[in-house]
Specification:
The chain has 130 residues and is an alpha+beta fold. It contains 2 helices and 8 strands; from the N terminus they run βββββαβαββ. It has a single domain, classed as RutC-like (60s Ribosomal Protein L30, Chain: A), CATH 3.30.1330. The chain starts with a strand and ends in a 5-residue tail after the last strand. InterPro entries: RidA (IPR006056), RidA_CS (IPR019897), RutC-like_sf (IPR035959), YjgF/YER057c/UK114 (IPR006175).
Length: 130
């Protein structure tokens, strides 16, 4: 089974030696998204809620480029520089996902690329094409 590299201009370009996502069969591994605006590659804002919103928009764009949607995600990992912001993440996530929700981890880290306050990566399972 060969891997397919997913790339879209609707999400921020990779800022290192990695792909936005890699698809193997019906499984898509999404790289971490931070709150960069794709058109400018600048941080959306210093406001945490706006950063969380932008990250979910970026993830949605990569999911769509891979042939799916956010709701197809089966696992998300959320990295926060301040775990006390988890309630904001929960509120934002509830607007982007419906039940059944994906499995999830939320982890506080000391720093994220470009000074972001949030980064999310995950795994998406596409409907079988068989």
């Amino acid at each position: 089974m060969s891997k397919v590299i997913i790339n879209t201009d609707s999400a921020p370009a990779a800022i290192g030696p990695y792909s936005q996502a890699v698809k193997i069969g019906t499984t898509v591994y999404l790289s971490g998204q931070i709150p960069l605006v794709p058109e400018t590659m600048e941080m959306v804002s210093e406001d945490f809620a706006e950063q969380a919103e932008q990250v979910f928009k970026n993830l949605a764009a990569v999911c769509e480029a891979a042939g799916g949607e956010l709701q197809d995600m089966v696992k998300v990992q959320i990295y926060l520089t301040d775990l006390s912001q988890l309630a904001v993440v929960n509120d934002t996530m509830a607007r982007y996902f419906s039940t059944p929700y994906p499995a999830r981890a939320a982890i506080e880290v000391s720093a994220l690329p470009k000074g972001a306050q949030i980064e999310i990566d995950g795994v998406m399972e596409l409907p079988s094409t068989n």
